[in-house]
Amino acid sequence: MQVTTISFFRYDNWASRLEAFSQMARGRFALKQIAGLEFFKMLGTGSDAGFNPRPNVNVNAILCVWKDMEAAENGLKSSITHKTLRDHSCETYTIFLTPTSSRGMWSGVEPLKVTEKADDTGNIAVLTRATVKLPVALKFWAEVPEVQERVAKHPNCAFHIGMAEVPWVQQVTFSLWNNKKEMGGFAYGDCPHGHAVKHVRDGDWFKEEMYARFNILKEEGSWEGGSPMSLLATGRTFDEPKAAPKKKKARKKTEEPA
Hints:
7 helices
């Protein structure tokens, strides 16, 4: 069973951010030497949960495709690149997945080998990847804000983030859902995302694209202080505003007897 991992790293100081930027350039050479690693991409993120093209220097990610779970677990432990980023980060999170469907290409190859069927839990992870044609990049990004707002408020989306190989033109999205049917309705129904997909198809906006769905196997670490997988049970998203603490009622002053 092929296993895909996505590891996220958060940084809170400039020394760590500079090291992360350095690893984005040279870490790939170390990754090429890891046994059992069949495909990988080092990814930056944008602002506003990754859906703003302005880069977010506080968060980056590494996507890896492994031949099996043993290779994934051993590879993540032995990877100098992952270890360096873990050591410099203030928070790390890795999610383990196995593909249940995939279509399209990434950098001219089909990286995912589908051998498993979707499980019956209703939980599903979704990854999209596309290279946007430069002449239509502004049209593409004009569609994004409304889609981002809708996915952030969707009760069945527990986690979502936008990433990029190259800002503006090589985009990746990743999300966790607790209802496959609701996810499909959001993706292709009569809604902003469905309309955006139609515009992409009608206008032939992408040079290359890939869409994949996964069963969710396990997670390690935390993100924003919590567990994205635990939110699948509740449907609460990280973007949901936290309730303000209740103000204590002031005690009524009582007049002391004269």
